[in-house]
Amino acid sequence: MAGRFAPSPTSDLHAGNLRTALLAWLFARTTSRECVLRVEDLDQQRVAAAHGVANRQVADLAALGLRFDGDVWWQSSRRDAYGAAVARLGGDVYECFCTRREIAEAAGAPHADGHRPYPGTCATLTPAERARRRAARPPALRVRARGVVQTIRDLYAGEVTGTVDDFVLVRNDGVAAYNLAVVVDDLAQGVDQVVRGDDLLSSSPRQAWLALRLGGTPPEYAHVPLAVNTEGVRLAKRDGAVSLADLGRLGIAPAAVLSWIAESLGLAAPGESVTVEVLAERFDPAALPRSPWVVRPPQPGDAVG
Ligand code: GLU
Fold it and tell me: 7: CA distance to ligand 1 center in Å?
């Protein structure tokens, strides 16, 4: 039994990411689970800089006192496992030659989460058509889901039901898609508890369906509120001093950042010095603040923690 934190090495972790990592760790630790760390570096595998970012992410989590179990997993080294999963899906995998624009034109308006359900254009191509299209453009691989409806249970959102479309398993550059990699790795790492930002809630039915389809059991889910800036927009690097490195430059040590995040979770008094172990003693999932965390990044001279 394990929980996990699975950052993408696109930039340094900001306060909201660190808070989600802390929550994933607290959920795992307080339910007698291991907590594993997985770097989701599929997109960045050709960019050496991603490695540097990922190593800083790992170091920043350690600086907060978060210890993960086992070795860090790197998705860029798991290609064979993703290929094996595609092979297991056998005849339910088909080649798709559609461009983004073709899908947008055929699928109509995106869903609330920005996802456009795939209209199935390439699901019925003949072998001759496939051969002709392959000459022009390498295919992505999609799974034939037959419009199945899947329900998941989320600790906070309750039952969430989604129609599973023929989503992409492997992109047309040969790289495994997020939805495939996340499911294959969660199963391989024994992850049965997924705690992550609530922007990913709508991806859960398709991931749960794929886990079942691969012979596994979907995890239990807890999607937690994201951090936003003072305008209510999802927190980002451009919002100011939001990473441990930025905060460090303002003289705010990791211990003070942990206090700040703990305070936002109702787990510490303002400025109280805490450790993650103390937070685990206090943690109660039912008491988690349910609205987004509004972050006002500290300014030079501000006293934090
Ligand atoms: N790598 C994803 C992210 O950083 C998270 C994936 C997940 O938790 O399922 O947004």
Answer: 5
Q: Which residues pair with 196 in a beta bridge?
A: 223
| Nearest atom, ligand 1, residue 203 CA | 9
117 with 211, same domain: the answer is yes
Q: Which residues line ligand 1 (CB under 6 A)?
A: 6-8, 40, 182, 196, 200
Probe target for ligand 1 pocket from 5, 182, 186, 237, with the most ligand atoms within 8 Å of CB? 182
Tens digits of residue pLDDT in 137-191: 999 999 999 999 999 999 999 999 999 999 999 999 999 999 999 999 999 999 9
Ligand 1 mean position to 196 CA, how many Å?
7
What's the pLDDT at 157? 98
> Which residue among 194, 221, 248 closes a domain?
221
Q: Residue 210 to residues 150, 182, 203, 204, 248: CA-CA distances in angstroms?
A: 10, 10, 11, 10, 42
Q: How far is the CA of 101 from the centre of ligand 1 (A)?
A: 26
| Residue 104 lies in domain | 83-183+207-221
What's the chain's Rg over C-alpha atoms? 21
Using alpha carbons only, give the angle 198, 56, 251 rounded to the nearest 5 degrees: 95
